[in-house]
Inverse folding.
């Protein structure tokens, strides 16, 4: 149950109120998550994400107006995203927009906990541990300093690593 760990701040986004309540109950049962807000559509989710600064967003795919996939595509500054949906056909698209995980409703407790742990790993930057050394090797230590000061540090670092990987790949093919 997460004793001794930093609490993650979560935003729950679903157009159906009962589904939001169910997700909130599951998050609260885990003990190391603070639900800082909820939203019923993509536009409201974006507004809430910017004002509440959650660490992770639990996001439905199909909603009126801006759907979850489009929201994630258009807003690369979002925190970690875990998609929670009843539709399995959007999974590939979700991972193309850098989703942490993709959960099918109803979500089993163990699957939910595993997704939260993946989000925690990404948020805390464990995946990017050697990044300072890599960037320093390219003479880009100042870029690391910038990324580590960003509000969504793990996303900024992940973006840097991806760009560096693409850049080095492009450089070797010339």
């Amino acid at each position: 149950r997460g004793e001794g760990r930093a609490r993650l701040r979560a935003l729950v986004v679903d157009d159906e109120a009962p589904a939001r309540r169910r997700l909130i109950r599951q998050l609260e049962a885990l003990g190391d998550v603070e639900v800082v807000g909820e939203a019923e559509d993509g536009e409201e989710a974006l507004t809430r994400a910017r004002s509440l600064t959650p660490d992770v967003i639990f996001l439905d795919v199909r909603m009126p107006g801006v759907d979850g996939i489009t929201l994630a595509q258009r807003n690369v500054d979002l925190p970690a995203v875990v998609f929670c949906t009843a539709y399995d056909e959007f999974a590939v698209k979700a991972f193309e927009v850098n989703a942490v995980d993709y959960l099918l409703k109803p979500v089993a407790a163990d699957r939910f906990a595993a997704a939260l742990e993946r989000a925690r790993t990404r948020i805390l930057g464990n995946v990017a541990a050697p990044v300072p050394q890599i960037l320093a090797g390219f003479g880009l230590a100042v870029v690391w300093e910038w990324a580590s000061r960003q509000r969504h540090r793990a996303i900024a670092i992940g973006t840097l690593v991806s760009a560096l990987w693409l850049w080095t790949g492009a450089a070797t093919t010339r």
Q: What stands out?
A: The first strand starts at residue 8 and ends at 13.
